[in-house]
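User: Could you go from structure to sequence for me? I need the amino acid at each position, not a summary. Structure tokens:
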């Protein structure tokens, strides 16, 4: 019944009553679409040939579909249905009287603003950054990201990149929230957490990942410093499964979701750049309050300076050795400081030495010249004399991380395996040395006491103290239970004699 109604609705009115009206209308639509895409000089002359091509293509598709099994057809229909759902905007959800969520049928959420992902991908290709992303895949990703941003009320959304995996790839989206929720709980085992707060430092943005545009997006957790520190000391391929165990040495005791988040943070903080002038800071503010903000007076990129390292700036703070963008200060550490006038010279010297060892946050908006040409490559393509030229900054430390700028727009993108470039072949660090054998005589708490004993006698006494203890005995009041119905392996008697009768109610 549903199919009949659909055919009645879809049938064009000007072909009403004509046998095969729907098939004819579909064919004409495909032919006109093919002509529009080809844009020939004389469309009428090529109409017949294109009509034949459309017929042959339709026949080939029909033949291919006829050769598919029912399972394959069902899988194709399911994938098409998922793509269809991406086009529809998510509906608002209200809470009913019974406390259950009910979607509103009439009102729909206003679509969130996202960048033109398809145009950004084409700009990267024009700039010489060739990505293994088909146009249809990019379009489906744009629809999926649009739906995600609308459903989650995300801001500053952008397609961050693709991280390859041995089984599946990760598509990564970066975004922000207008207001971040308060975090609950501390670090491991109830200790205070040294994780940077959401909306600042390495946790300035939220990240969502999925294995396919039709799949569900998963929000990655806030990155912890210990994840970054451990990830720096190892090198492991991702699998594409967030719950997978990260093998290798040194050991990474968390799941792949933590390893992926750490690598994303390392790439983002080290490779997010923009042409000079796109961002600005308040020079009169305190150093810790100087946060880069978009410069409304930026007039656009000068292509003649697009290939200069001094004309590009880091827009994100770099990661310190402690896995944070800002130095960690424990609670109460500043309050315990003594007045310098009351401190002795030795304490002052010790304090100065410790201050020199402390890490300091990187200054904002450093230029790429501070890193050097061995870590960055900048160029203009196709030529500085071309009005539509692109300026490109490509990281040599993290292959696959590039920023393309043209006029007032700039796009950052990453595609790769999530590994940093090494000058030599990677070799895991050597395991730590074996711990020396325990010597009781060297233990100040347990060493045997004996005035007048020779070293040999002390050693014998220590050996006697380390003698293996006998197995503990069971308490006197404990009685072993009798084993009922257990037949000895050498028992060759009748099985019926050794089998316990079934309890009442167990028999059929």
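Assistant: Here is the amino acid at each position, in order:
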């Amino acid at each position: 019944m549903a199919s009949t109604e659909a055919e009645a609705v879809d049938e064009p009115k000007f072909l009403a009553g004509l046998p095969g009206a729907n098939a004819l209308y579909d064919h004409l639509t495909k032919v006109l679409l093919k002509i529009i895409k080809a844009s020939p000089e004389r469309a009428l002359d090529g109409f017949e040939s294109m009509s034949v091509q459309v017929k042959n293509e339709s026949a080939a598709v029909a033949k291919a579909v006829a050769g598919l099994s029912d399972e394959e057809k069902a899988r194709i229909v399911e994938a098409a249905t998922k793509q269809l759902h991406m086009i529809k905007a998510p509906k608002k959800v209200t809470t009913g009287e019974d406390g259950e969520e009910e979607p509103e049928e009439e009102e729909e959420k206003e679509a969130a603003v996202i960048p033109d992902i398809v145009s950004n991908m084409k700009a990267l290709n024009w700039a010489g950054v060739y990505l293994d992303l088909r146009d249809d895949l990019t379009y489906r990703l744009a629809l999926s990201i649009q739906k995600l941003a609308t459903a989650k009320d995300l801001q500053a959304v952008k397609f961050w990149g693709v991280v390859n995996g041995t089984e599946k790839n990760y598509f990564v989206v970066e975004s922000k929230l207008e207001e971040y929720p308060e975090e609950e709980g501390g670090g491991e085992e109830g200790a205070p957490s040294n994780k940077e707060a959401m909306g600042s430092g390495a946790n300035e943005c939220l990240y969502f990942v999925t294995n396919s545009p039709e799949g569900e997006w998963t929000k990655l957790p806030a990155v912890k410093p210990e994840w970054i520190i451990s990830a720096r000391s190892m090198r492991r391929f991702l699998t594409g499964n967030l719950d997978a165990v990260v093998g290798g040495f040194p050991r990474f005791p968390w799941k792949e979701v933590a390893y992926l988040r750490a690598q994303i943070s390392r790439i983002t903080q080290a490779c997010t750049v923009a042409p000079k002038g796109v961002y600005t800071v308040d020079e009169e503010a305190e150093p810790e309050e100087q946060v880069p903000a978009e410069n409304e007076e930026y007039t656009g990129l000068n292509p003649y300076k697009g290939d200069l390292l001094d004309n590009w700036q880091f827009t994100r703070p770099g990661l310190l050795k402690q896995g944070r963008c800002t130095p960690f200060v424990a609670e109460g550490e500043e309050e315990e400081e003594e007045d310098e006038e009351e401190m002795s010279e030795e304490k002052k010297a010790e304090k100065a030495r410790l201050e020199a060892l402390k890490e300091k946050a990187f200054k904002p908006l450093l230029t790429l010249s501070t890193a050097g040409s061995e870590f960055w490559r900048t160029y203009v393509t196709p030529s500085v004399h071309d009005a539509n030229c692109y300026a490109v900054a490509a990281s040599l430390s993290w292959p696959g991380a590039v920023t393309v700028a043209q006029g007032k727009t700039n796009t950052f993108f990453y595609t790769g395996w999530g590994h940093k470039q090494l000058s030599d072949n990677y070799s895991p660090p050597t395991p730590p040395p074996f711990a020396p054998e325990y010597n009781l005589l060297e233990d100040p708490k347990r060493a045997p006491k004996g005035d007048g004993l020779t070293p040999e006698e002390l050693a014998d006494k220590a050996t006697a103290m380390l003698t293996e203890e006998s197995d503990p005995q069971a308490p006197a009041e404990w009685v072993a239970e009798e084993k009922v119905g257990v037949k000895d392996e050498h028992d060759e008697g009748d099985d019926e004699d050794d089998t316990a009768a079934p309890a009442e109610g167990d028999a059929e």
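One structural detail worth keeping in mind: Residues 2-67 form one domain.
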